[in-house]
Amino acid sequence: MTVAGPIVFRADSRFLIDSSSGRRGPQLEDFMYSLSYSLRLLHSGKVVAWYSPKRKEGMVELRLFEF
Question: Which InterPro entries did the record assign (predicted)?
Fold first, then answer.
């Protein structure tokens, strides 16, 4: 989902479907939020920040696609 111009918000989830655990239905295994900003000056990179509440970890990355 694009928020505004070069800023994009994204939410990813992973579900577990396992009948051997005795639980019914899918279980939410992981969920991750991310926000990215495309670098207009370089035209070939972006800054990405993501966070996973279940794992309690996150990261800020600088991705360069071409030099």
Answer: TGD4-like
Q: Which residue has the tokens 């000056």?
A: 41
Backbone phi, psi, residue 43, to 5°? 60, 10
Tell me the C-alpha distance between 11 and 36, whole Å: 12
Q: What is the pLDDT of residues 13-43, one digit of tens each?
A: 888 887 666 667 777 788 899 999 888 766 7
Taking a C-beta distance cutoff of 8 angstroms, is the pair 42, 64 a contact? yes
15: tokens are 């579900």
Tokens read off for 40: 């207009």
In terms of residue numbers, what domain contains 44?
A: 2-16+29-64
Kindly report whether the global pTM for this prediction surpasses the value 0.70: no
39 found inside a domain: yes
